[in-house]
Amino acid sequence: MSRFLRQSGQLTRLLRVSQQASLQRGVRLSSLSRATATPILRNSHATQLRCYASKPPRQDDNQKPKKDADEPKDENLNEEKKPDVQEEGAKKDESKPFPLPDGWIHLSKDEIKQMQVFYQVIPEAQRARLDEILKGIAETGAPAEIRDILGKLKKGPGNLSIMDKGRLMRCVFTMAERLAAWEVDQEKKKNGTFTQNNIGEDGKADPSQQARKDQGQNQGPGRPGDENTKTISVRISLMQTVLLLGIIMYSLDSFGGSMSQKQITWQEMRKAFLDKGLVQKLVVVNGSQVRVDLHPTAAQGDDKRQYVFTIGSVESFEKKLEEAQDQLGIPQSERIPVSYEAGGSTIGNILLAFGPTLLFIGLILYTQRSMGGRGGAGGMFNFGKSKAKKFNAESAVKVKFADVAGLEEAKTEIMEFVSFLKQPEKFEKLGAKIPRGAILAGPPGTGKTLLAKATAGESGVPFFSVSGSEFVEMFVGVGPSRVRDLFAEGRKNAPCIIFIDEIDAIGRARQDSGKGFGGNDEREATLNQILTEMDGFNTREQVVVLAGTNRADVLDKALMRPGRFDRHIYVDRPTMSGRQEIFKVYLKKIVTSEDIEHLVGRLSTLTPGFSGADISNVVNEAALIAARANADEVKMEHFERAIERVIGGLERKSLVLKPLEKKTVAYHEAGHAICGWFLQHADPLLKVSIIPRGQGALGYAQYLPQDAYLMSTNQLMDRMAMTMGGRVSEELHFPTVTTGASDDFKKVSQMARSMVTQWGMSDLVGPVHFDNDPNRMHKPFAESTAQQIDQEVHRIVEEAYKRCKDLLTEKKKEVGLVAEELLKKEMLVRDDMVRILGKRPFEDNEDFEKYFGGSKEESAPPPFPNDGEAPAPGDSPQPSPAFNELSRSEQRRL
């Protein structure tokens, strides 16, 4: 309040604007009346009549009043008579009182004088305007309630109740509106008074005023120069002033108690009031202050101040008061009453009671309004608002279809959607309709989301991207609401594309009734809403829906049917040619001097089964390894280390094995290497190592499997025999076995069970297929069938074990040579195996021979190493650059 009262400049400007508006309104109304008069009357009679309505026109000092010879006498007589008629009409209008509505009264002079007391805190510059307002209130009257309120205010601050304060503010609003209407009416009656200041002596309009008039006309209706706008400005000015007066009265009653209080001491109170018998009542406020209420006859003149004094404690005050009254001989029946009250104003108590609640409600409303301004409705806090991100041609998506490699079939399907949205007439002229949606399914990391990014970067239409998990929240009904909002935004921006990533989060198959746990399933409600939006009554062909998932087998059948997801695009891991294209894309940013074609071929051969994400990780790891070694470029050895790190994990340099454990690991890995070398259907061996890597891998053997999509029984048996080579080697060279072959047994058991239950490779069980679902509560076969399956699995594993043991028993010497070489070097590459074991007796695949120096010509086996010495030059072929043996220090840097 004090800050508002200090803004004297603002109130002064409001006063000046209102006065200028009144002046301009008078000029405009006078101009309007002149426009309807004849030219002769406007120039001679009408102008002079308006001038003499208030006072005679001014004359120059050099001119003397004289009679013009050419002017008729009767015209002068008209000029003298008509102003008298005008003056009489003006006086008659001024004397006519402003009519009072029902329930209104005219305030007395004492009541007007009482209201003047309340704005003594206003600066002098603003009191003149408030005096005018009070004069207007005296003319227009006030509600009868004001008299009662003024009577209570006259008794002193704090006498108004909450209801009285509400009545006061209601009366202030009513008075402000009525006073504004009265002043506008008064201005209309005084139009002639304002006109005389704007008319020249020659009867023509003042040029400056005419310019302002033209400017106001050019501004058009509804603008600052318009008549209605000026009237509203005057009303606002008056209402602001009257409201200010009401707020002052309101505040003085609520907070003015401290302003009208005078601090005294106990001794002064006793000497001035108590001893003279002027005290009517004593009020103890908050236990620390006493207010003295005097008898009404004790007030001196207009002094209405309250007297207060401070006490130390209530007990000491009561004791002093009792002693003082005993000394004065006041009987018990006439003792001064003492009351107690908790201080604070009514406003303060109300704020303390309702302030926190109002603040909380205001915070909720503000948050809802601010979030609602960001677009769309969605309930409180906009939980039902879709969280989809919108991309368009000007968005920051830089991925294009040229950046997507190895997925030619899937890319062709997606590009067809884009071309239809860009050129629909090409398809519509043949009667074709674009599919409603397409689902991208496949293993993780194969490029489903990358295809969606490329679509957003090249579609040229709005693209909305959202994750399936963003539809589900803690509140019921949020998922369907967000689906509705998403498709509503899509229809507004049609044609457009909506991409839902990981749609299996909300698109799982619905359960049969009775199988659930009861309650409301939010996923099913969200799925039902998606089904309705994709193919319901409120659908549009220009909204295309793309979705990505790794679990297309668990999706609801209604979601996968034609009309919703018409096309099912399976994005599989890339083949050899696909990996080459992907490597070419990622190698563009790598600094290397290697032959790109040869490098791409080698890396593609070394990474069978890798997805696009794996290839990206390999290239990035190679660059990091080269940077860690302070190399100027990325070489082939860096790529090899990166592949080893991705496949086997990080080297565990801190793990130090005991000599016996290290020897056991060497013979274990040597058994795997010998089986892979001498079994026809085993994968070609690339590298064998006894350096610990990853989690629990004390050694590993790296093979190069080819891209095979069908496997025969012989291939499966050779793989199982090769997998069991480590355990058989331990049995042949050590008196006891270890736990290092547990993972090998797991792989062999799974492969044998699949041969029996899924691939029909058992004569006893027959060509049948049983689902191998570990989460299934009941087996899909009988107990007798389960026994047959177990017997067949045991038989297949025994055959593989016998085949492996026969081979390693025959090659026991070679196993020892490879193991001892591993103990010396910790890592052997393919050329080391050729030097020790001779050329592999079986032909390798074409890709391996092309990129790793395989030869079909038979040659004599190289001599065995002699006491760890290197072979003489020319005795064995030089190793290829891809498998150069690394020194111990270089291996440790990995």
UniProtKB/TrEMBL annotation:
It catalyses: ATP + H2O = ADP + phosphate + H(+). Keywords: ATP-binding, Hydrolase, Membrane, Metal-binding, Metalloprotease, Mitochondrion, Nucleotide-binding, Protease, Transmembrane, Transmembrane helix, Zinc. Its cofactor is Zn(2+). The keyword Zinc applies. GO terms for cellular component: m-AAA complex. It is found in: Mitochondrion membrane. GO terms for biological process: mitochondrial protein processing; protein catabolic process. Transmembrane segments: none annotated. GO terms for molecular function: ATP binding; ATP hydrolysis activity; ATP-dependent peptidase activity; metalloendopeptidase activity; zinc ion binding. It comes from the Eukaryota. Residues 434-575 form the AAA+ ATPase domain. It is a multi-pass membrane protein. HAMAP family: FtsH. In the C-terminal section; belongs to the peptidase M41 family. In the N-terminal section; belongs to the AAA ATPase family. This is AAA+ ATPase domain-containing protein. It comes from Akanthomyces muscarius (Entomopathogenic fungus).
